[in-house]
Design brief:
mainly beta, Jelly Rolls, 19 strands, four-stranded antiparallel beta sheet
Amino acid sequence: MAEQRGIQEDARQRILSTFNYGEYYHPDKIGVDNLYLLNECSLAKGEDFDLLTVPYTAHIIVPLVGDLIVQKGPIRYGVSIGKIFYSERMVESKWTITSLDPEEPVSFLHIGIKSGIQQQFFERTTVLPIPLSVVKDEWIIPELFKNNPSISFSIGTYNPGKEFSYQSKLNGGLLFAFVLEGAVEMEERILYAGDGICFFDTTAINFEVLSGNSIFCMLEFEKKDVINLR
């Protein structure tokens, strides 16, 4: 739950960690199989954040407040609200994340995933649209894991007043849901912004949106590819 996340904070930045990260460690927060990193990061104006990757991992950055610059040496990507940054890495690397406007603070969601099969991750970095302000009450599925069909990522904006169902994109393995904004009741559990929940051996999830413009994402891992990172 959101209030159980680790907090690392100073004048430059604030990091809320669902799983172990940096100086935050809890024996029960080691990650959920392939999903090992889920942070909500906020940067003060003029500050930056170092995104350090390890080999055979994929990283997703979703802007929450403000527009971002993600840079590695001379390579520079603009990631505005309504877009998503995605990078698969076979080697260690460091990306620097800053605000497009140095006079404005920013916040973003950072998701890190380890590959169960090394041959299914390659060197690839891209920015893709996720038009959450336009597409309502249906899932947006950006083309992220092109070489790894055993992982799926969906994100959507939903309005209250209806009941919906998420159908498994894979074969009913592990599904992790995370709420970015708003509130949702999912399989009789009420989740708010910053809350996450994991389902195992699941082919469908029923949910009801409780507040307007609720945004949440689904990460799904095919049953045969689920590994234990302990």
